[in-house]
Amino acid sequence: MVDGAQRRDRHDAVPHQRRDDHRQGNREFLMRVLTGLHRRNWQREALGGITLAAIAIPLNIGYAQIAGLPPTAGLYALIVPAALFALLASTRQLVASPDAAAAALVASSLTGLVAADSDTYLQLAFAQALIGAVMFALCAVLKLGFLANFLSAPILVGFVGGLAFDILVSQIAKMLGVHIDSGGEFVEKATQLVMGLGTINPWSVCIAAASVVILVLGRRIRGVPWALIVLVAATVALVVFHLDDAGVAVLGDVPAGPPTFTWPQISWQQWLQLVPSALALTLVTIAEGLLVARRYAERHGYPEDPNRDLFAFGAANLGAGLTGGFTVGSSASRTAAMDQAGTRTQLPALVAAVLTLLVVVFGTALLRDIPSPAIGAIVAVAVVPLLGISEFARLWRLRRFEFAVAAVCFLGALFLGPVIGVVLAFFLSLIDVVRRAANPPVDVLAESGEPREAFRAARDGAVSTVPGVIVLRFAGPLFFGSAQQFGAAVRSAVTAGRQDGAKHLVLDCEAITGIDTTAADVAEETLKWCRAHGVTVSFSRLRTGVQAEFSRFDLIGDAQVFSSNKAAVTALTADARVEG
After folding, report:
1. Model's pTM, two decimal places?
2. pLDDT of the chain along its 580 residues, tens only?
3. Of 200, 207, 211, 201, nearest in space to 240 by CA
4. Cα–Cα dist 370/375, whole Å
5. How far is 241 from 569, CA to CA, in rounded Å?
6. DSSP line for 370-431
7. Nearest CA to 283 among 408, 417, 101, 110?
8. CA 551 to CA 520: how far, in whole Å?
9. Are the CB atoms for 227 and 54 separated by under 8 Å?
């Protein structure tokens, strides 16, 4: 009897052991795939996924409405796309999801093509994500991750701020119970909001006001899913008091079921019409997403590969386009929330994807009576920080020019539309880069008297480094944009130096990284002018590659080349004494 009992115990233990081994195997697989995940932190990371789902589900419903899409488009974007990004990205913390800026771009670009309530509109949104996937993949293959550096902070602040203000108008209308065309232009929506103030629904205002108070005050207690609490409380209040009968708008029926494979049924002409807006969405994600990923990687000391992240964004958008979502970008706010929760891997995104799948399969009936004012309040509170009020104030205080650039981008995104706003932002960024490169600092150097015998920029209007010698540093690349600046600076320095008895010019070339044909022609004429006015020209601290280029353009000739400014000054002053 004992032997039989022992055999039964062993037999019953086998399935339990197998299940334990299976769970252990799953954990080990995730730890291999998700960098940074290990036995000591997987439970914290999994709990972070529950928090992420509580934040992301209500926000994505709101962002889908901003984009003019059904709620399922926002929810499906949290499942397959988020999982693909989590498994493929190098960044451990960046949360990939549709955000407010992407939703506004989708709405503004698609409403100009078809009616927002048509089935074709939804098909265009899928196609837009697929085109974006191809663009992200191309950027990854061509290793264009460096493009993230070409949108400066002021430009990004202005552009995103303009989109946020446009979104805020639509959400305020929801909060007040005023009906406006959310897909219209900013001026049209603002006008409709003002004209509709006489139709404000008091119950909508009450729900929205209570939601805002809870969300704002709740920030003092971290780790609590206040957005989810607001949605549940508002829905319960609406059902109990029948507020929908009093005119409070609700989300409505949400189709149940998991995401399924789909392919956009549109014409080739419509595919081509979507290319500019897909490019704009790609550029915004590159500029914002890669910078956020880099910021957290540097803060926590782990490696990141921007080109691999571009590939992951491409896979995420491929998943979105094929499973009923819409364009996936990055969410800085959710990334910050996960960072504050202590998560350092992509496991929260996978957990949130599973929870969202459970919601769309089993819980869509719970979404039908969510009040629109509550959704509007959640989105409004989320986008207010994107207005960049503190950033604008800082720019005004520190650099008025960059404030002006941010203001132009803000107004461009607001009044010209997000797509044109992106083009304007990159155009202004390019102008800023060229402006800075074309006007590098040019200094007459003076001996510093320091032990290292270094040279510094001369002060008090000095025109010579030492009697008879001018050491001139051109602190930038020599190219077509800066060539005239170089010529004018050399002529000005030599003219002033000759009045002080200078006979030698030494060009400190340490900061010159290259030269093109246009700059070489200008430099040749400038050096001839110096020699014609009785001033010899020498070179100092030439890089090996740059010296080869100068020789190829025949700029050096029989001029002396010195390894340091000190050596140049010593040699030329010795020659002057010998001549004297």
Report:
1. 0.72
2. 455 555 555 555 555 555 555 555 555 555 556 777 777 888 888 888 988 888 888 889 989 988 999 999 999 999 999 999 999 999 999 999 998 888 888 988 898 888 877 889 999 999 999 999 999 999 999 988 777 676 677 887 888 788 889 888 988 999 999 998 876 788 888 999 999 999 999 999 999 999 999 989 988 887 677 888 888 899 999 999 999 999 999 988 888 899 999 999 999 999 999 999 999 899 888 878 887 888 888 888 888 899 999 999 999 999 999 999 999 999 887 888 788 778 889 999 999 999 999 999 998 888 889 899 998 898 888 888 888 899 999 999 998 888 988 898 899 888 887 767 777 777 877 787 788 888 888 888 887 645 444 566 655 566 777 888 999 999 888 999 999 999 999 999 999 888 888 899 999 999 899 999 999 999 999 999 999 999 999 999 999 999 999 999 999 988 999 998 889 988 988 765 545 4
3. 207
4. 8
5. 89
6. -BHHHHHHHHHHHHGGGG-HHHHHHHHHH-HHHHHHHHHHHHIIIII-HHHHHHHHHHHHHH
7. 101
8. 11
9. yes
Answer for the pair 53, 95: CB distance below 8 angstroms, yes or no. no
Secondary structure E strands in 426-465 = 442-447, 455-457
Measured distance CA(148)–CA(306) in Å, rounded: 9
Q: Which residue has the tokens 């927002």?
A: 116
Cβ proximity of 428 and 155 under 8 Å: yes
Spatial contact of 59 and 379, defined as CB atoms under 8 Å apart: yes
